[in-house]
Amino acid sequence: MAAFQAPSMISSSSSAFLAHNSFSLSSSKLCLPRSRPCVLKCASAPTTETAHKTNVSRNTNMAKLQAGYLFPEIARRRSAHMLKYPDAKVISLGIGDTTEPIPDVITSAMSKRSHALSTIDGYSGYGAEQGEKQLRAAITSTYYGDLGIEETDVFVSDGAKCDISRLQMLFGSNVKMAVQDPSYPAYVDSSVIIGQTGQYQKEIEKFGDIEYMRCTPENGFFPDLSTTSKADIIFFCSPNNPTGAVASRDQLTQLVQFARDNGSIIVYDSAYGMYISDDSPRSIFEIPGAKEVAIEVSSFSKYAGFTGVRLGWTVVPKELLFSDGFPVAKDFNRIVCTCFNGASNIAQAGGLACLSPDGLKAMNDVINFYKENTALIVDTFTMLGFNVYGGKNAPYVWVHFPGRSSWDVFAEILEKTHLVTTPGSGFGPGGEGFIRVSSFGHRENVLEACRRLKQFYK
Amino acid sequence: MAAFQAPSMISSSSSAFLAHNSFSLSSSKLCLPRSRPCVLKCASAPTTETAHKTNVSRNTNMAKLQAGYLFPEIARRRSAHMLKYPDAKVISLGIGDTTEPIPDVITSAMSKRSHALSTIDGYSGYGAEQGEKQLRAAITSTYYGDLGIEETDVFVSDGAKCDISRLQMLFGSNVKMAVQDPSYPAYVDSSVIIGQTGQYQKEIEKFGDIEYMRCTPENGFFPDLSTTSKADIIFFCSPNNPTGAVASRDQLTQLVQFARDNGSIIVYDSAYGMYISDDSPRSIFEIPGAKEVAIEVSSFSKYAGFTGVRLGWTVVPKELLFSDGFPVAKDFNRIVCTCFNGASNIAQAGGLACLSPDGLKAMNDVINFYKENTALIVDTFTMLGFNVYGGKNAPYVWVHFPGRSSWDVFAEILEKTHLVTTPGSGFGPGGEGFIRVSSFGHRENVLEACRRLKQFYK
After folding, report:
1. Is there a domain that residue A2 lies in?
2. Strand (E) or helix (H) holding A17
3. In Å, how far is A313's CA from the nearest CA of chain B?
4. Is A51 on the interface with B (CB under 8 A)?
5. What is the number of domains present in chain B?
6. N or C: which end of chain B has fewer CB within 10 A?
């Protein structure tokens, strides 16, 4: 059990709320008490040993979770670094947060919708939980035009991360999931929360009852399916976060066949699909037979800088059936109606503008800008002699530091160059020895970051 | 298991996706097949008996849910009515959807924030999952100024409904909940989804392992706590949706003491707090000792017309502890960080404007407008000789039709007056014999609705 922090520290930043068991440096600095009695003393009021406790047991699944969610932990480390070096210009190539302004064609639409909400004719209250019809139609025609996906298969969300949790609620605790290792931490953490997993096994850094599909340079970051155990739900992200690898058509065909053979459901995360430069599939539904075995989650976050605006979507084809023949989409619809109330109507107006001809061009311009950043970062690490992966079809560069701890490399780079990266091991044990470098950043910052890296690692 | 609908019907409206087992009228009309083979035939493709089914079992908790979520079902009924009477002017006093434009002081702030996102200085990506610091501070000072709630106890959400599900994920499946009967259906349905309940018991219209706290005219819509079984989590809404009743300070003091005695956690829904005209508490935290036993969920939806904009908040005091002393807020923070990514930054700019002096005045003006509507509706039903409850401190009027089925009354009013209401039994068995009439509507519509009711029930 992680120790409770003093309230004054909790208020200092969002991420300071989260303790990370393994960092004694930060915990001593932040005055984190570790013993049970002190937990009570640190609560603001009442401060006595007789503070009322409820009789409600803590959810044992929550107690299984390890440390803080990765990205708040990085934010906390960054804040601590800035306290230590108040004059340093810290540059973040860390959490994958977009930095470039949203094109005006998109924000104008959101601004217009905002103003319209002050008029009798333009006001709208509750929208359809599944999203506005026009936006669902535009997503369908833009991304799934000739793939047999229908408008009613598309559910608009407030982001892929949020829908991943809603999908876990849909599946419940009696399924077994498989996940690429390394992978985006929300897959595993949401699986733990919903009760699909066993305890965390510290020695192997894995949760019980999850199938970790190792993705390494040796297998081209595509798992060896011949040695992969059967799972009910297979989370698969391509272009991959964090490795930046993209799965080829042939590989995805194997994956779909694997799912068909095992009766599995693939949850395919295509949040970076528009970063693909070659002819790799941008959607799992490009693979024949995928509609009967796959769900796809996606997002405007990394296409249009909507990380803060919050808009995404999930495709659940009506052909996807549980073992008893019941359509998965029908249960997902129920989840969306019961646990969600639709994405913000203003964000949806922005999404619709994204998919206009001008919006698509503007999104592509921003994506190309980030891809130029990626090339600069890839060139830098390559020049320095590192083995560098990803970067071609994704905004992430995956750099190998063989034999070293990711957190040590993260700390070294932060300490010596004031650059924030992401430790690969934060994405699972398969990420150990790597760091993820994000290419979201203003050009001058990326250039400066490359200069500092060249200086330090020369 | 509910039958699957033909895809063509699914696309016709968001709510048409949901079948309602008990409505043979609508199901015959909408061509809902009921037998298993037909389920497969109705899927769009492939249409053969050999369609691929996954081996993933449907979540048994999802299968426990009854019929559709209430409000989409009402929308479906309304759509069917409009097909039948294409020339009728249907007026909705049904789903509690706000109708009046959002005051300009609020939409201007959202518009400004939208535009700012197109500038280097004004752009922001991921915000704190817990919400922007300024907004958390404004919510704290506006609604909890002298109640000892701190800014860090406040978590900004995309609406109360969404946070109710996140709270259920936090609690997990091993708790027992209590709920007012009648109550807002999301409490019970989210409890079923997360696995806290037994099967639905058709004869008593209740789920197993939920404590239904009957609220009737006889007990002043406050449950008899002396006969209420102990529960871990007590959902309590005041001013109440649907009955419109508000709990007095004395009643809430009893409730807090009941929770303290039993070690329970109260989830207090104060989404209608600003509608209170008398000196009833607007927050559970006005009751001494509540911080150690209560969570409060609230929303801008009914204050500022944000039903489509999506913004709310939840207060989890750091004094609230699980039985092992672990702070509930710490687990909730983890849920928010893992399963959510913060409310839309544009909506948050609107929320901040709501809490400015001009915004507060504007919100109060809109609330007073709806309260005038409420008075018109109360007067109408009272004049017609009905027993009418609620309405004074809430935008809902709860009208008694003793001995009649709520759905029959709903259908009668819709058929004869083209008015959409909400059947009381949709909120639980305790709502049988009542209808809920919402006062959200343009004035001329409310006046017209009152005229039609007077005409029909004279």
Report:
1. no
2. none
3. 14
4. yes
5. 3
6. C
